[in-house]
Amino acid sequence: MTSATTVAPSDRITVTITEGVADVRLVRVDKMNALDAPMFNALVDTAERLRTENGLRAVVLSGEGRAFCAGLDMGRFAAMGDGSSDLRDLAKRTHGLANHSQQAVWGWRQLPVPVIAAVHGVAFGGGFQLAIGADMRFVAPDTRMSITEIKWGLVPDMAGTPILARLVRDDILRDLAYTGCIFSAQEAMSYGLATRICDDPRAEALAAAREIAGKNPDAIRGIKRMLNGLGGDPGPALLAESVEQMKVMGTPNQTEAVRANLEKRAPNFLDGAN
Question: Does 111 map to a domain?
Fold first, then answer.
């Protein structure tokens, strides 16, 4: 008989572990699993809890409802537009190489076991970076993705850049980041951002995770350590994300980008502001 264990349930994330496979679900369905403060906390706390889970072999990360994750909660953008957002010291390293927001992604990258993101609907902005934090991405055919941060006058700063630099050709990454364009699952596959395109990404991801769970766990963890060690020290890139974000957050041009989007008009930017 197969036994299942529920770990650290919350109103943002649920976790069920069956025979060494953790089925992690984002469950803020009414907001398409958008990232608010409780969701950030839940992502960080869940990854930390799983890091020390005895017998863990693999993780599947997915979203309930219409989307994997729609990105940053609109309420946080509204706060940026009216100047009331919390301008924290993002350069402070709170979790090793990462700050708290980065750890919501980096924590999954650093789990000692493979993580598969099962992506459907949309994965925008921080939601896209969360998917990138996984070892592999199984994507539904009609999924839409975007490095959306530039739309809001921001830089991508949730640990995506050191990961993306290893996945995507440099000019393609620049195109996606500079324009914030929405791209398809098929384009993601051609860019190196999707591992598989499948009609039921969660079911296929769980099947792959069960296959991984049947391999020598010591070797699997060793492989992940080796692969994570390729490409040099990610610390400078993680810090650069935070430094560059602090340069633009709350500035006139950044708040103008937010207001223009919320008001559905063309932005009027200042030259030489940064």
Answer: yes
- Tens digit of pLDDT for each residue in 96-113? 999 999 999 999 999 999
Domain of residue 43, residue span: 4-199+228-262
The model carries a pTM of 0.93
Candidates 151, 126, 183, 146; CA nearest to 261 is 151
Residue at 35 is within a domain = yes
| pLDDT confidence band for 1 (50 / 70 / 90) | very low
Here the CATH number for the domain that contains residue 117 is: 3.90.226.10
